[in-house]
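<goal> How does this chain fold?
<body> The protein record starts here
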Amino acid sequence: MNKRVTFLAAVLAAPLMMQTATAAEVRGFVHINGSNVIRPFADAVADRISKSGKIKRPWVESNSTGGGIQLFCRPDTGESPDIVNASRPMKQAEFEVCNASGINRIVELKIGYSGLVLAHAKKGPALDLTRKELFLALAKNVPDPECKTCDTLVPNPYKTWKDINPSLPDTKIEVIAPPFGSGVRELFEEAVSKAGCESFPFIAAWKETQKSKYKEACFTPRTDGAYIEESGDAVVGLLAESAGSMGFVPYKQYMNNTARLSAVRIDGVAPSVESIAANRYPIAKPLFVYFKADHVGKVKGMQQYLAELTSDKAWGEKGYLAQLGLVPMSAGERKLYAADVKNLRAMPAPTDTVAAGPVSRDAPQAGR
């Protein structure tokens, strides 16, 4: 009799046990989504941990930081990512959406930095440009130069850099920028297009009052040949052959071609590991990974993925992610963030004022 009761209880309990096992656990592999900028790094780590065949390769997708976080914060289902890659800190509103969906233990991991360099051929003159000047050079429509007090846009009239600023060279504007869908396009739009556009207060105000107008003004490039979309090694070749052209290349690609290329100072700052890590170089940003602490130890492969990502052979100064373009953090910062991962240290609610530079345990860090 006791055996029959025990067996019946086990049968009745089985569905409940299935319910307590999350859909993510049943899935059997790690699901990652988020920023295009971080996609190459995520793929490299996923390839490493799946080489043995003992772990299924993590499913890595990318669309954007905001889109990835939106999926990450959905109620915990098999389709909801375990990890989201972000080229900016998580916002307070996004954190609150996660909490409302029952996702309450999120760990924030900064993995390093990404930087873009505006480069030109060595034989070209040394240049220092502002992001406002870059917006005026590359946008399809710009503030009317004939009416300084008018809050109106006109088709871009600038043909040379000297047209924008008399102190700049009298050379034709020709800039190679990352194409839509490329890994660094997100960084270009955020750090160059958006920043330059918002240097005009009336356009910045449209962000709250006329969002579609704001997006069109800030992110629509000119189509008359001054703005050229290209990426990869082809950019270096094009720049090396033309003394007048400039082009955006990832920091790592620039460093591999310093014999052929020179860097433009942006807002007075030259690109370097030091200026990028200290958050002084304008076209750079910290890169983050957010993961669900409750999935570690349950979703197969998640511990291995995080351990590999935070190993010196991956994110260190000489790691394989640096070879792909990641600008590493200092050893001290890596140690702090690796400890957060090991201890599954849940982040507090962000305040939307996260500093992008090196962290310190001496003062509270928003989002840390």
Notes: The chain has two domains: 24-114+285-342, 116-284.
